[in-house]
Structure formats: structure tokens, C-alpha cells
Write a structure and sequence with these properties.
Blueprint lengths: L20 H21 L8 E7 L8 E7 L37 H21 L10 H28 L1 H11 L23 H23 L4 H38 L13 H17 L7 H9 L7 H4 L9 E8 L2 E8 L4 H26 L25 E2 L5 E2 L1 H11 L3 H9 L31 E2 L1
Antiparallel strand pairs: 1-2, 1-7, 3-4, 5-6
Bound molecules: benzoyl coenzyme A (BYC) and fe (iii) ion (2 copies).
């Protein structure tokens, strides 16, 4: 089938790129601009060292990766789509059951382009946010994991730029250029979504971002894998296989910080992990609260006509739309979304189609709760029985959607400004917390060593030991 990847061309691909000279030329023109972008705002530390990275060699599930040392700028970014599914049908909306599209229908062109651009924009944004982190890496294996995430986010940008250039003509080419012109956190040309303009200068933030924000990626890609636009679906299906590693970097990274905190607590007479240079459990909880909130925002408004249009047209489904749902039309059905009216939070019914962002957010929240349970088992496993991590309500600390103009406590109860002001430092990172965490960020660049505030990982990469030469110096 098509799963084998052609590495002989300038742009590795499994889409028979050389048969479309125009497209190939356009992408080859974009390639040097991408490399310039990578050099100037991609990873700034160990940028020319050999890193032990995986590269895709096929799109078959399992066994698609090859590991070896490579300098990041020499990474073979390319265009890899999952194999087409035979006789695939539209998963949801008005045209559910009809054959999927291999071209963009004119009436949906702008909608589709917008979604692809938003998705694309997050990928380079995250690389920009993380570009200095290796400077204070807690171990060389962690630096390697960061770089693996970074090169794959770079590839995700390629994945979306391919769609823009292949299916959206001149507009698509312009958008592809703009994707290299916006900058995370820039006043004039910021990235599109909030979370991707936040600074990321410490590893507690990086792990939280990979756990919670990359997980938004998982769910958005999952919903786009259900898309009626088949090239988008196939692209997202392969991206999801790469995404799994990013999530595990976040989940395992935070778990290691937690385990270390528990160990230090038991060494200190006051059970104070900070006294021994760790990140205490309540501080980790604050980072969780912050990044869970920012990542929930990425699902958009609870009640959204955009989301209804995406669903009705078949452009975006719910999580596992074709497998887990029976009703793919959703007309004449409602769901409850707690809504603030006259200063009170009341249950209100809305057309289900208008709540598709909320449906996806529910799937995401459920997945996050699953990880929380694992973390709490790890905390108990380390001998701490009087502390449990928890996730706040999805209404807590929101800046997008209908809860953004109100304050809620961690349980989702509506509270007034004064209560919020009095409590927020207990719930969210304070300047002092940030300064403390930042003060721990001293580099451990010695092979096989690990910073004091984080436990060593239990396993290395691809069967290698923790003290393997993940970065050649
Ligand atoms: N920040 O009706 P609504 C990833 C805007 S992460 C700023 O709810 P919609 C990754 C919204 O654009 C996955 N603005 O909108 C992770 C709209 O503006 P306009 C990224 C926001 O369209 C880590 C307005 O508010 N993929 O891959 O239903 C590392 C009204 O809102 C935000 C996608 O997002 C926000 N947080 O929903 C690397 C998938 N939220 O148009 C990578 C594609 C909303 O009125 N995107 N707004 O000016 C979408 O499907 C949708 O655009 C959204 C928003 C779900 C994001
Ligand atoms: Fe990505
Ligand atoms: Fe990711």
C-alpha cells in the first residue's frame, strides 16, 4: 500500500509528491523558510549536536519509527498520511453515510481552511515556547524527549502546510507563509490561541503543557480524524500516533516530580519537600490547576454555532464519532450546560449540535481524570497517604467561553470577586511560587545524572539505559 515512505526526495513523503510538480515546487520553496524559522526560534540549545531521535519510516501502526543520532536541523521532516480506509463514509452531520471527500467542497472551503490554520498554528507556537528549555534540562534524557516533541511538532506543521498548499491554492500558500511569521507571545503577531502565547521557562510548566495542552491536541486531532475531508482525516490519524509520546512525556514527567516530592517529604522532619529542594505537592497542584484551565479553553465556547456548523457539515466529529456513537445526526436532541443567569448558576438545555465543543471537552476531561488516578496511586506508592491530587471543575479559571466572565471555585461553585481575590493564591501559581520553581531550574547536563527535584525515569528510550548518550557532545 502507500505506507512506505520515500526518503529519496528532498521532502520525504508517502503522497507521491513527485507526481505533482507544482505542489512539489511550492513545498520546496517553503522548505528553506521553515528551516530558517527552525534555526531562529526553534530549539536554541544543543541545536547542532547529535540527538537520539526517532524518525517515521512507515505509517503502519506499530514499528513505524527508526531511532538514531541526528542533528535537529537535519531531521527529515516530511508528509506522512495514514493509508486511506477503503470505502470510508462521512461520520456525522447532514451527509453522514455518504462517501468522504477527496477535494474541498466550495461551500466549506473557508471553514476547513480556518480549522487547518488554527491547528497548524499551535505546532510551531509550542516549539517557540519551548526553545530555551534545554538550557535548564533536569537530565539529558529529558532534553532528548523535549527535542523529540519539538521535531514532531515541526512535522505536524508540515502536515498542515501540505494540506494548505495542496488543497487551498494561493490562499493556502499565503497561510503557510503566515504560519512562519506569527510568533508565540508577540504583541503584534501573536499565535492564534491563548495557551500558545504563554511563556514556558520551567520544566514543571513544560510537563504540564505536554500533559494537558498536548492532550487537547490529541482530542482535536481525534475529532478531525473523523472529518469528511479525507486527506485531513488521514493526516490526523498519523499525527495521533506521534502525539502519544508527547502525552507520556508530560504525564511521566509530572509523576516523577511528584514521586521525588514524596521522597523528600519523608526525609524532612516537617514533611516539607521545599526545604530539601523539591517541588512540594501543593505547588504541583497549582500548576495542574493553571494548565488544565488554559487547556480547557482550547475547546472553544460551550455553546457554539461554529461547532454546530462543523458537525453538521461533517468537518469535525466527536471523539471516536464513528465507533462510540449511534446517533450521528444529533438534531432534535439537547444537553444540559450549566449557565449563569441573573447571578445564579442554573442547568440549561441547549441543542446538542451547539454543544459539540462541550462534548469533546467532556471526553478530554475524562481522560485527564484517568491520569489523575494514576498519579494518586504513585503518591500512595511512595508512602504519602494524606495528599491527593484533583482536577478542578471545568468552570474554574477560564478565559474563553461562557464561564470566562465569572469566577468559580475549584468545585465549580459561582463565587464573587472578593472571594476569588482572597482565594486565588491558594489555587494558582503566585509570583513567589514561580520564582521558587524557576530557582530550581539549574541545568543537569551530565550524562546519567538527574536534578534533585525530579525522580529519575524508570525506563530509558528504545531500550537504552538512562545514562545512554542521548545527546552527543
Ligand atoms: N484562544 O465559537 P467558538 C495542539 C475564539 S492543540 C483564543 O468556540 P470555535 C498542540 C475562536 O477562534 C489543538 N481564541 O470557536 C498542543 C472564535 O473566534 P472567531 C489545536 C479562542 O471555532 C500542544 C471565538 O473565540 N487544534 O495540536 O467553535 C503542542 C468563538 O469561539 C480560543 C485545534 O484547535 C482560545 N483558546 O472553537 C502542539 C483544532 N477558543 O472565529 C500542538 C482546530 C476560542 O469568532 N480548531 N477562541 O474570531 C477548532 O476546531 C476551533 O477553532 C476551536 C475554537 C475549537 C479552537
Ligand atoms: Fe502537534
Ligand atoms: Fe504534541
Amino acid at each position: 500500500m502507500m505506507s512506505s515512505i520515500n526518503y529519496d526526495e528532498r521532502i520525504p513523503n508517502n503522497v507521491d509528491l513527485s507526481s505533482d510538480r507544482r505542489l512539489q515546487k511550492a513545498l520546496e520553496r517553503w522548505q528553506p523558510a521553515f528551516l530558517d524559522w527552525w534555526q531562529s526560534v526553534g530549539p536554541q540549545v544543543f541545536k547542532n549536536n547529535d540527538i537520539f531521535l526517532r524518525t517515521a519510516i512507515s505509517t503502519d501502526p506499530g514499528g513505524w519509527a527508526q531511532f538514531g543520532h541526528v542533528k535537529m536541523p537535519d531531521y527529515r521532516w516530511g508528509i506522512f498520511l495514514a493509508d486511506p480506509e477503503k470505502d470510508r463514509r462521512i461520520a456525522c452531520g447532514e451527509d453522514a453515510g455518504k462517501p468522504v471527500w477527496n477535494e474541498v467542497p466550495g461551500e466549506y472551503r473557508n471553514m476547513l481552511k480556518r480549522i487547518i490554520v488554527v491547528q497548524a498554528d499551535t505546532e510551531p507556537a509550542s516549539v517557540e515556547q519551548q526553545r530555551w528549555l534545554a538550557d535548564c534540562a533536569p537530565s539529558m534524557m529529558d532534553a532528548r524527549n523535549l527535542f523529540q516533541v519539538n521535531v514532531e511538532e515541526g512535522r505536524h506543521l508540515w502536515a498542515m502546510v501540505y494540506l494548505l498548499q495542496a488543497y487551498f491554492g494561493r490562499d493556502g500558500r499565503d497561510e503557510a507563509d503566515e504560519l512562519l511569521a506569527r510568533r508565540s507571545g508577540d504583541d503584534d503577531k501573536p499565535r492564534i490561541l491563548d495557551a500558545f502565547n504563554q511563556p514556558c521557562t520551567d520544566w514543571l510548566t513544560f510537563f504540564s503543557f505536554a500533559m494537558f495542552t498536548d492532550r487537547d491536541g490529541k482530542y482535536q486531532l481525534g475529532s478531525l480524524a473523523e472529518s469528511a475531508f479525507d486527506p485531513l482525516s488521514r493526516t490526523c490519524r498519523f499525527m495521533l500516533t506521534e502525539e502519544a509520546h508527547h502525552l507520556s512525556v508530560g504525564e511521566m514527567g509530572l509523576e516523577r516530580v511528584m514521586r521525588r516530592a514524596c521522597q523528600l517529604m519523608q526525609q524532612d522532619s516537617n514533611q516539607d519537600a521545599r526545604a530539601l529542594g523539591g517541588v512540594d505537592l501543593p505547588t504541583i497542584q497549582k500548576w495542574i490547576n493553571h494548565w488544565y484551565g488554559y487547556s480547557l479553553d482550547l475547546f472553544g465556547a460551550e455553546v457554539s454555532t461554529n461547532a454546530a456548523d462543523y458537525f453538521a457539515s461533517g468537518i469535525k466529529g466527536r471523539w471516536r464519532e464513528s465507533k462510540d456513537y449511534d446517533d450521528h445526526n444529533c438534531l432534535g436532541t439537547t444537553r444540559v450546560v450549566p449557565t449563569v443567569e441573573d447571578g445564579m448558576l442554573i442547568d440549561k438545555d441547549y441543542e446538542l449540535r451547539n454543544c459539540m465543543n462541550e462534548e469533546l471537552r467532556d471526553s478530554y476531561a475524562k481522560d485527564c481524570h484517568r491520569v489523575l488516578r494514576k498519579w494518586n496511586r504513585a503518591v500512595r506508592d511512595e508512602g504519602i497517604t494524606d495528599f491527593e491530587f484533583s482536577l478542578p471543575s471545568t468552570r474554574f479559571f477560564r478565559r474563553q467561553g461562557q464561564y470566562a466572565n465569572h469566577h468559580f471555585d475549584r468545585d465549580g461553585k459561582l463565587i464573587d470577586q472578593a472571594t476569588w481575590d482572597a482565594k486565588k493564591d491558594d489555587w494558582l501559581p503566585t509570583d513567589d511560587d514561580r520564582a521558587y520553581v524557576q530557582s530550581l531550574m539549574t541545568p543537569v547536563h551530565e550524562q546519567g545524572k538527574v536534578a534533585n527535584w525530579i525522580a529519575a525515569p524508570r525506563r530509558g528510550i528504545n531500550g537504552k539505559p538512562f545514562d545512554f548518550e542521548y545527546v552527543r557532545r
